[in-house]
Design goal:
With 117 residues, this protein is mainly beta. 0% of the residues lie in helices and 47% in strands. Strands 2-10-9-4-5-6 form a six-stranded mixed sheet, with no helix packed on it. The radius of gyration is 13 Å and the shape is globular. The chain starts with a strand and ends with a strand. The mean pLDDT is 94.
Amino acid sequence: QVQLVESGGGLVQPGGSLRLSCAISGPTLDNYNMGWFRQARGREREFLAGITWTTATTMYGDSVKGRFTISRDNAKNSVYLQMNSLKPEDTALYYCNRYPERYSWSWGQGTQVTVSS
């Protein structure tokens, strides 16, 4: 079973930055696109960013476009999310998983990001 472990969250002031990491282990097979998602309290899970396996083509949700950057290291089975210019509305539990979401594996525990002064 594939396991996803997200890390790197924390408390940051508005305008600050964080870099999230996602470690992927287990029988993933090759050629899987990955994404970052988040879920704020009382809200549905939201797609943030995706990256393809072979060409590392990226795509972003409107709410984070221009502020967040997704990247991956296939050799390390890892995916990253660089988050800049953070806003209080970015506060949420952040998850990584396959993209599109309909192909998702079991969800990990996520990593909490809190943006507050």
